[in-house]
Amino acid sequence: MVKTIACAAVVLLATAGGIRPQAGWAAAATKLPSWVKVDAAHGANGTLNFNAYANGQMTVVVPAGWRVHIDFVNTGAGALPHSLEVIRAVPASKIPPQAIPPAIPRAESRLLVAGIPPQQTDSFDFTAQLAGQYLWFCGVPAHGTQGMWDRLIVSASAKVPSVTVK
Predict the structure, then answer these.
(1) The pTM is what?
(2) How many Cα neighbours within 13 Å face the side chain of 40?
(3) Residue 44 scores a pLDDT above 50
């Protein structure tokens, strides 16, 4: 049986990778969930963040085989377009300069390079099939290299999704 999690990439004054859980989600950090709608004006890295977290500060763990739903909303006040895709994890010094093919089929918003304009939305679904380490990544040129990325772990041993923040 495939289980589904719902993630909202809620962009608050930037792109925010907000997460809306199914029942049973655990948050390992007390300062984040009520499900990750954050005032990005007080977040990291200006408007180049996901739910006020950038440069790998937020890690989402998803059990392997679970279906993930993303509601991506760019409510950025900085009038910057943003996108979201899942790429293979790389060291911070090797972050790509713009969008590359996603590491998981269908794990990408539309307009990866151009970005979703402010005040617009997108939704997409994918199955977190292959266990491994990935990044949530903005494919708009230079956004990723400027810190607009966080971590995604698809875990073969996790029973429920979780979020940790630094």
Answers:
(1) 0.78
(2) 28
(3) yes
